[in-house]
Design brief:
Structural class: mainly alpha
Strand content: under 5%
Helix content: over 70%
Shape: flat
Number of strands: 0
Number of domains: 1
Radius of gyration: 23 Å
């Protein structure tokens, strides 16, 4: 979080370009804490996501399947992305960044599949805007919940520690009891 507070918008921009859901959510949380401005977090995430995915699309378009074949660890995900692109086309192109595990490989696949540049740019712009707003809003909401949770823990610190200690002791006793019951050998 300290990197976010000192270089905030640049961190969000670069993080969004490099598959940065975590950075985006943390940017939203930082905005809730007043360290960053939410509209600027959204703007940085939008630009980073848009630029990163455009670059990957152009690499896929220029080098095609050969590029994907040079990355065999991507093969299962590339095949899945290609199936989804074939089946859902426009919807997949807008929403791929919401599909865990497919965000990185999808722009390469879409470029290699030959989607026209104007179409990808339009759909990528829509997807990046929705993703940036949703992720930042989620982080902003989590920032509020986290602050409330931390305040509650601080107010009830002694009770919280007692409950955790009690749960730990109970877990230890249950584990010990089940080990004794399942020990091989004669029973008394």
């Amino acid at each position: 979080m300290s990197l976010l507070s000192s270089h905030g918008y640049w961190v969000v921009l670069v993080g969004a370009a490099l598959e940065g859901e975590t950075v985006l959510i943390m940017g939203g949380m930082a905005a809730h804490q007043g360290l960053l401005h939410l509209p600027l977090v959204i703007g940085a995430a939008f630009l980073g996501s848009l630029i990163g995915d455009q670059v990957c699309y152009w690499i896929g378009r220029r080098h095609g399947r050969a590029f994907l074949e040079r990355h065999p660890h991507w093969q299962p995900r590339a095949e899945q992305a290609n199936r989804l692109l074939t089946r859902y086309g426009t919807a997949f192109t807008i929403g791929f960044r919401f599909l865990y595990g497919l965000r990185t490989v999808s722009p390469f696949v879409i470029g290699a599949a030959g989607m026209p540049p104007w179409q990808f740019t339009l759909l990528n712009t829509c997807g990046a805007a929705v993703w940036a707003m949703a992720g930042a809003a989620l982080g902003y909401a989590f920032g509020g919940m986290a602050a409330t949770l931390i305040e509650g823990i601080q107010r009830n610190e002694a009770r919280f520690v007692a409950v955790l200690a009690g749960a730990g002791i109970l877990f230890w006793l249950l584990r010990r009891f089940t080990r004794l019951r399942h020990r091989p050998g004669p029973r008394p």
